[in-house]
Design a protein that fits this description.
15% helix; 3-stranded mixed β-sheet; extended; alpha+beta; 1 helix
Length: 71
């Protein structure tokens, strides 16, 4: 997985690890990616905000549902 980098990326990743952040959710990525860096899981998803329309063969629409429980 390759993402755009910005100046504070490494600082944020270090802070997430220092604070014990388990998950980071981000959107705006036109697809789905999931990775783990250190102790933090990153989930990137987003359909890009375009209205749904017929997709070329091999492509699909998606949605992400996340359940948060006390455990």
């Amino acid at each position: 997985f390759k993402a755009r980098n910005f100046g504070e990326s490494e600082d944020l990743a270090a802070l997430f690890n220092e604070l014990g952040i388990e998950y980071v959710l981000a959107a705006g990525f036109h697809g789905y990616a999931r990775l783990r860096q250190g102790q933090t899981n990153y989930i990137l998803t987003g359909g890009g905000g375009s209205p749904s329309k017929k997709r070329p063969k091999g492509q699909f629409h998606h949605a992400t549902t996340i359940y948060v429980t006390p455990n």
